[in-house]
Specification:
With 550 residues, the chain is mostly beta strands. It is built from two helices and 28 strands.
Amino acid sequence: MESIQISKGAGSVVQGYESMTGQINVELKKTVDEDKLFINGYFNEAYRSELNFYTHKDVSPMFKTALMGHYSLYPTEHDRNGDGFMDMPKGSLLTLLNRWDYHNSKSGLEGQLIAQWVQDRKEGGQVSHDGDTHDLYRTPIDGDRIQVYAKAGYIFPKKRYNSIGTQWGYTRHIQDATIGHTLYDAAQTSLYGNWLYQSIIGDSRHKYITGISFRYEDYKEQLITDHYDFREIVPGAFFEYTYIPHDKLTVVGGVRLDHHNLYGWLLNPRLHLRYAPDETTVFRLSAGSGMRTPLPIAENLGWLASSRDWTIGQPGQTANNYPYNGLEMEKAWNFGASVTKEFTIDYRSGLVSVDFFHTRFTNRAIADLDISPQQLWIYNLDGQSFANTFQAEAQYEILKRVDLKVAYKLQDAKIDYKDRGLREQIFTPDSRFFVNVSYVSSVATYKGYWRFSITAHNTGTQRIPDTYSNPEAFQIASQSPDYWLFNGQITRVFNKKFEVYAGAENIGNYKQSPVIIDAEEPHGDYFDAGLIWGPIFGREWYVGFRYSLK
């Protein structure tokens, strides 16, 4: 990948009705990348090996193509803490992606086509002895995915502010899993289309994007003997207006209306404001709503590795034809504000940013593990659910070629659990602290230089589901401790083509303990391998290389 962009708060109405708290855009390497060939190899202490490659070719002046691939292998079982279970699953992951770009500056036409295939094979559970897996508690999970994405656009030659475009995607995902004696099979077929028109009203101070969309989802799930099959058919329309009276102010307001075949009409308004009083300061405000269909089994799959009996919705109830025994659509409002300030001290630049976001759910699918250590209930929210998030970060070149990054996040997330009232959301750290120091030995002349980086990360306390009704030997604390993780990396750049790197994750060798409740009886009444709040494997060294051909 080339970069990752993260937007906080409610997203643009152009992208759909689901964005509640932000969006992540993964930008892949383009067909015009300066690297004609790029190869990255990796090997670590756990015997994980990885190979990534990228190459591109100009087929014609208008057509370019790129081929990318990834293969990783975890061939070995590891049990450092001696509880009889693998610290991490073994398996392999293979991904191939082909990208085609078309650009015709004379006609104003451009387009893109991406096809990707993923094969994922993993297996965890009890460690074997001499390869014998008979009667062991194992968790094989196989996943296969085919995804095709395309977009095309046309810019009117005589009206450069006018354009039309279309985006569409197809995904087929199949997953087969057996967690101990529990069977879970799933298949999803997705089809998405988006048609857009962009223009101005009068002059370039008033811009707008409008269009229609269509979404089709076909879900088929089997949990043991229960089947959960349903389809989503969602046509929609949207309108987004941008007002830019001058360089300092930008106001973006949008609304979209969708019709869901199961949940009816969905109305989502969103508003974004950006104000820059000078070239170094930016204020942002955002507000909006988002909705999504809960997928309670896929989203809580880890809890199958326990003795818990699942109760989803109200068995036997199909209220309003809602899937999963009457589970309603999740709905939330998000409000946020941020300020970013760039500065220069002693000829060295820096940046400070502060933001606060409040998310309030009007409905939510609650995964409740507090009712009993032997049960998991998933039901509609009846009461409050909210999250307040404050984050501050700073970047500064403290010395020549020495960069410092510091970030702190404070989070208060609470849910009204049935019969227990308002409580902290489980496995949600109340705070996080991050600091990174990086150093480059000299200006990058490609005659050879060093890069150094060290990171410290503190994770705050997390609430753990109640286990007090278990026998004393199978009870654990209700709160996890806060803990530090330290990572470091050294890179030697030899020339424009070749560099090697080495590093370590979790240098302090911090590990959660205990990891599994009643690990000796995985089919017993108290077994639970899902209460994970920290690292399990411990310290992990790695080495690797990067090769590029310009």
